[in-house]
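RECORD TYPE: protein structure
NAME: 2-octaprenylphenol hydroxylase
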Amino acid sequence: MKQTDIFISGGGVAGLTAAAAFGAAGFSVLIADPMPPITDEETDGADLRTTAFLQPARDFLIAAGLWDRLSPFAAPLQIMRIVDAGGETPEPRVTKDFDAADLGDLPFGWNLSNWLLRREMVARLEELPNVEFRTGVGFASMLTRTNEARVTLTDGTRISTKLVIGADGRNSPVRQAAGIAVKTNRLGQKAVTFAVAHEAPHDNVSTEVHRTGGPFTLVPLPDHEGKPCSAVVWMEDGPEAARLAALPVDEFNAEATLRSAGVFGPLTLASRRMVWPIISQIADSLNSERVALVAEAAHVVPPIGAQGLNMSLADMASLLDLAQANPNGLGNADMLKKYHRARHTDITLRVKGVDLLNRASQAENPLLRDLRAKGVEALYGLAPLRKTLMKMGLGAKG
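PREDICTED:
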């Protein structure tokens, strides 16, 4: 039976980050995922979405030995721009800029492609002698006791560990094996994700355009073939998202440009299109005996305000702090109860908050759209409130 301090189920961005962080802190880690990570954007199945790491994530990534690898590829997010285009025609009628300079010298965050994150994170794990990454094999079952967990993998490997971290997604096998229930809200939406080139520079501005169906978000990327480039998340009702994803390229470019309210001029597709279901979900508990849930195993939110992965990194930072504070108590009941108490309330509030923002962005009734536009203006007009909201978006609790 193989011995390790920590077993991590899930080799996505969250699981790889957790493995690097705990490995860099000196814990022995075994991480497993049924699928080998795709680390090239041209490979079928590559995750073409992007992830924005907000300010608080940087220190965590530095400690994990990841930031120096990632920073050369990162596009800074200096301004978060909210555009309301909910009038009779899809044109900007309210535009408000939330500038990170109001809070300090750093940008709000940095945007990177998910396939590239995987490439650099896998390379980092290879540098850590106390971390073993097994691909093509996943979590099968576990038996927990007060002093250890025994995990069996799909290839029959048996592992004895002090802590099992479920970082294996919204349908987490670890969560199911631990008997932890979830509350799921299916929103009837899907997100079409893709990259676009455009003539106007993005100037490191992340732009959310609100009309109906959900936000149309353009997030800065490095230039593509000499042109400014942005990652796009276009949220719509499910049938409309499917229709958009199937359009011929020229027609899709025209509809995307129209939906963007022309903020960067004509948009030209610069990647494949992918469609992702949008749900809101939260686990009833973040822990059970010898088990901690992080990331989408614990919570799922619509892709608004870059909250998803940054909530996940807050999970990992909290768990790592507790582990380092008492290494001899790694994975025990006291540690895991403290983890749940430290994170569950904040997660619940953020899931509800993002859900409310999403519902406001879905509004089709012109009166509700007018109310939304006035709300944006009112919030922006009160400087202390504006700064408080920006700090909360970065992860502060008030």
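COMMENT: The longest strand covers residues 182-198.
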